[in-house]
Amino acid sequence: MQKNKHIFLVEDDEDDQQFFVDAVKEIDNSICVNLAFNGADAINKLDNMLMLPDIIFMDINMPKMNGLDCLDNLKKTIRLKNIPVVILTSSGSAEDSAHAIKHKASYFFTKPSRSSLLKGNIADVFKALFTGDACA
Prior knowledge:
Helix content: 40-55%
Distance between the termini: 11 Å
């Protein structure tokens, strides 16, 4: 029996959170999505999780601890460093993209404004990371 996938979204904007969760549920309603509002919140929650997520999706621009600082922290933590991290952001900055990839983000994409595009981006990530079985 295949275990359900667990996604962790680190995003400070509640509308963007809902937009993301809706897109994931359209792909596969069995996927569990946990939320954090910034990098500091994410680190705290991840430190206390018994079952770690399969993937972390993370915004860059957030209060308290931004996504790039959180990514750096995750990749330095033995328990968390192997979780794929996908940076999704409204920033189109080549510098942000380069930093994310340099610090071992698995993917980087700009947040689309249309649900169908977001859903497509998420599905592509699932397909790549779950070897095509994310929605099986």
